[in-house]
Write a structure and sequence with these properties.
single chain, mainly alpha
């Protein structure tokens, strides 16, 4: 039995639903949700890098203080 060919299509980058070929998102809601998720991820990354920098500075400060005391 021959398989039926599906029309050319893509999939929504947010929810994965089929969309006409060339479209990226199925609707405005998926686009807005993706943008929100991207911004949330950027904020989390920023917080992580700040925490790493503060931790590194604290370790260097404690190391310097111990060097002075000894």
């Amino acid at each position: 039995m021959p398989m039926a060919r599906l029309p050319e299509h893509s999939h929504c980058l947010y929810c994965g639903d089929p969309v006409p070929y060339g479209k990226i998102y199925c609707d405005e809601e998926c686009l807005m949700l993706r943008e929100y998720d991207d911004e949330t991820e950027k904020r989390k990354d920023r917080r992580f890098y700040i925490l790493i920098a503060v931790s590194l500075l604290a370790v260097l400060a404690v190391g310097g203080a111990l060097k002075v005391l000894l």
